[in-house]
Write a structure and sequence with these properties.
Blueprint lengths: L3 E2 L5 H4 L3 H10 L4 E5 L3 H13 L3 E5 L2 H10 L4 E5 L7 H10 L6 E5 L4 H9 L4 E4 L4 H17 L5 E3 L2 E4 L4 E4 L2 E3 L3 H11 L5 E3 H9 L7 H15 L5 E7 L3 E10 L6
Parallel strand pairs: 2-3, 2-4, 4-5, 5-6
Antiparallel strand pairs: 1-3, 7-8, 8-9, 9-10, 11-13, 12-13
Helix pairs in contact: 4-5, 8-9, 8-10
The structure holds calcium ion.
Calcium ion (CA) binds next to loops.
């Protein structure tokens, strides 16, 4: 396995010690970023640039190594090139989410092709950048996709009979753990921050997908339905309400299941 670390961790490069790397990553106060990119110049540019912005950086130069590093260590975000040898960016995303890993992913695409972007987002990427991009833009996107978990760190949300722990990515209803995708989790987080108050569709879409993504209103409805199927349907009581044409809300008290507008 070939991987690289920030300069302070260079001693590990000669004889990689996974336990020591895991400990160093765990103890760092900086944001931990994994860059998966096969083009050496681009990889070095990203690595040095992010390091100089105060990030702790690890890198991988092919998809298989990237997947292994991504699932071995904990990161705040992954910068993922789509065109990679051994496992391309799409395959890597699919495998990563299939292993229930919800680390935010910023895709790097070579072309501004909407189909490619939508495919990546469908597979669970959180945002994308089209090459060439500016460094401040990259940093802004990284800050954006890592924001929800940073703001909510340690702040457990409780309302009705639902408990959401942002730190551990855990949702419990009636003592039963509910497995949510990252996007479902973000949607529920946004709604649970202000129970009893409706949240506009625009706010929800920006919270889940970020402000710059070409996401349709239909995608939000699909996501709400999949969240309801997990959090409402099994309990026969609704906590997710609809404000017709405007948005959604998290109810302060669960109501008998009846998909009526508020
Ligand atoms: Ca590439």
């Amino acid at each position: 396995m070939f991987f690289n670390c920030e300069r302070a961790m260079n001693s590990f490069l000669q004889s990689p010690n996974p336990a020591a790397i895991a400990l160093t990553l765990k103890n760092t106060v900086a944001m931990r970023i994994l860059i998966i990119e096969d083009e050496p110049r681009m990889l070095e540019l990203l690595r040095v640039g992010l390091y100089e912005h105060g990030y702790t950086v690890m890198t991988a130069a092919d998809g298989e190594t990237g997947l292994e590093v991504a699932t071995t260590y904990e990161f705040n975000a992954i910068v993922l090139d789509i065109g990679l040898p051994r496992l391309n960016g799409y395959e890597l995303m699919k495998a990563l989410r299939g292993r229930v890993s919800w680390t935010p992913v910023l895709m790097l695409t070579a072309r501004d092709a909407e189909d490619d972007i939508i495919r990546g987002l469908d597979l669970g990427a959180d945002d994308y950048l089209t090459k060439p991009f500016s460094f401040p833009e990259l940093v802004a996107r990284l800050q954006s996709i890592t924001r929800p978990s940073r703001e909510d760190a340690g702040r457990t949300l409780r309302s009705a009979d639902v408990v959401l722990d942002p730190d551990r990515h855990v949702v419990i209803r009636n003592s039963k753990r509910i497995d949510l995708s990252r996007q479902e989790f973000l949607l529920l987080t946004c709604l649970m921050r202000c129970p009893g108050q409706w949240v506009s569709r625009q706010t929800l879409m920006e919270f889940v997908w970020g402000p710059n993504l070409p996401v349709s209103h239909g995608a939000l409805d699909v996501l709400v339905n999949s969240l309801r199927a997990k959090i409402d349907a099994p309990f026969h009581k609704e906590v997710i309400g609809t404000v017709r044409g405007s948005g959604y809300l998290f109810k302060r008290a669960a109501c008998a299941a009846e998909r009526s507008a508020q």
